[in-house]
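Sequence in, structure out. Go.
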Amino acid sequence: MDRTRHYLQPDDHVLEVGCGTGTTALTLAASVGHITATDVSGKMLEIAESKRANQNVANVSFQQSVTTHPLNDAPFDAICAFSILHLVDDLAATLSHLYSQLRPGGYVISKTACLRDMNMLIPPMIKLMRLFGKAPDVLLFDAPALEAAFHDAGFEVVETGYFGKNKSARFIVARRPA
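Output:
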């Protein structure tokens, strides 16, 4: 979160896609002006809204939406996409959409599972689990392919790295050129 906060300003309007139960949005709320946090799951958003109310956070709003749905309050100063890009249907289309929702000079900040960088048995295990309905559809890419996808969408990659012990979840900060 410290690296994420480095790219945020106190008056920023931030979009978080795939917010789940809202933990990240609520954690970052004190660092920005407003966060619009979206997720496809209404049940996750119910939990997020309950957390928001219990923590008395006024500058976060949750809404049910798919990652590629245009939002009325765009463009955003920054977009956070944590643990979601490997779950989208089309990475190129998603990054292109995020680019369109971002103001020039704004950042997309992501941490993404690069499943091809994991143990070589993980991709076949995921495919097998999908056959039995025990895993979602996921995109299988490595860190260089993920970074290339950001470049192909028009972004300038300004920071990459890994945090903690997990060397398969790539942290990427990409900037929409001004």
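Check: Residues 42-55 form the longest helix (14 residues). Residues 2-175 form a domain with the Rossmann fold fold (CATH 3.40.50.150).
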